[in-house]
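User: Let's play a game. I give you a shape written as tokens, and you guess the letters that built it. Ready? Here's round one.
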């Protein structure tokens, strides 16, 4: 009996250590395996054209991993290392959706924040928009989450560093709180990393925890996402695909590529900084398709109503196509392709990452590349749409 208990315990530990969605043949998920090979050809052609060094594609359907494959190399300088299905990627701006936005939604459903709250309620002195007559319009949480706040797209890192030193998270927030606003909230759309660095500060102030710790406790650990973190270490670090070659010839590997996140926020940033792999992202995508509940352990990260809110464009900014944290039909949503439904939501990352989720077909497409390796010359805009079309075209039931 004692040996049986030990065996059961060890098996449970092994399953926990390698948490992943059940892998099935495509036809068991209502997909055509031969048609999915179209995606293989598209990705391999992109590698041949030197648009990317390699990639990992994962397709989630009906709560299962219907397809996962690695292509090419994760590193081509100074040595060549093959891509693997377990390779960990710098998720870049996909961090906004898979971490920062979800953290904010968790606080919202706990009654800690409202989307209609003024940002200045949490960041004293946070400036709104002022028109020619001196009339002020406050920036609200919904404005920063839908990129309709009027904040500029980015900040000149060297200037901010020169003024505040680095890393200096407080200095960066101080800069954002008073920098020039480009238009009145909700009157236009402008994608801005400063929006989600602002959201990070709100999350940290309300929760009393740094963003990385709050996300780990309330998302990554709950879903058993073993290789997802900010500032990766240990085995996760060893699995990281490098990004851009630096001026001294070294590579960024396990250090976030985004300059504001790396230099000013020391790797923990609302706009970027999450590292993850296909298996972990698949777990998250499956949970979002399952109304916020894990298909592995039945634990929840969000309520069904919160998931619905996250994938719905607010009426006040309907024409711009952004939800609180995700993209549906803004100019940045070309990664959705042409065949997935109108309710498809997703996000892309500068490094070459992409996640799209279609609730109507219960499908998610995860395409991970490190297109900035080694010299930030690769391109994946067209690739993402082509792969999405190939996957959508393989759905048969």
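Assistant: Ready! My guess for every position:
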């Amino acid at each position: 009996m004692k040996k049986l208990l030990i065996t059961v315990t060890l098996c449970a530990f092994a399953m926990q250590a390698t948490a992943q969605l059940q892998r099935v043949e495509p036809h068991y998920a209502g997909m055509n395996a031969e048609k999915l090979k179209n995606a293989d050809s598209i990705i391999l052609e992109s590698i041949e054209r030197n648009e990317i060094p390699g990639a990992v594609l994962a397709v989630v359907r009906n709560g299962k991993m219907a397809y996962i494959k690695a292509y090419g190399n994760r590193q081509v300088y100074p040595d060549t290392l093959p891509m693997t299905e377990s390779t960990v990627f710098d998720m870049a701006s996909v961090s906004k959706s898979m971490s920062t936005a979800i953290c904010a939604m968790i606080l919202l459903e706990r009654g800690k924040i409202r989307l209609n709250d003024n940002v200045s309620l949490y960041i004293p002195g946070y400036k709104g928009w002022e028109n020619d007559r001196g009339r002020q319009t406050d920036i609200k949480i919904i404005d920063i989450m839908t990129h309709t706040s009027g904040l500029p797209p980015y900040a000149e890192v060297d200037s901010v560093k020169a003024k505040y030193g680095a890393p200096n998270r407080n200095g960066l927030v101080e800069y954002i709180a008073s920098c020039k606003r480009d238009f009145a909230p909700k009157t236009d759309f402008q994608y801005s990393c400063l929006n989600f660095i602002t959201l990070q500060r709100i999350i940290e102030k309300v929760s009393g925890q740094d963003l990385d710790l709050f996300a780990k406790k309330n998302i990554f650990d709950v879903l058993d996402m073993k290789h997802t973190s900010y500032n990766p270490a240990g085995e996760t670090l060893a699995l990281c695909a490098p990004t851009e070659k630096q001026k001294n010839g070294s590579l960024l590997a396990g250090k976030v590529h985004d300059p504001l996140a790396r230099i000013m926020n020391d790797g923990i940033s609302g706009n970027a900084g999450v590292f993850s792999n296909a298996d972990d992202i698949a777990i998250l995508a499956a949970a979002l398709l399952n109304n916020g509940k894990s298909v592995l352990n039945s634990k929840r990260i969000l309520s069904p109503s919160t998931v619905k809110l996250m994938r719905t464009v607010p009426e006040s900014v309907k024409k711009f196509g952004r939800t609180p944290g995700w993209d549906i039909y803004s100019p940045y949503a070309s990664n959705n392709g042409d065949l997935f439904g109108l309710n498809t939501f997703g996000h892309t990352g500068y490094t070459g990452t992409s996640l799209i989720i279609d609730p109507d077909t219960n499908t998610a497409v995860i395409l991970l590349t490190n297109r900035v390796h080694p010299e930030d010359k690769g391109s994946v805009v067209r690739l993402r749409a082509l792969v999405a079309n190939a996957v959508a075209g393989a759905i048969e039931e």
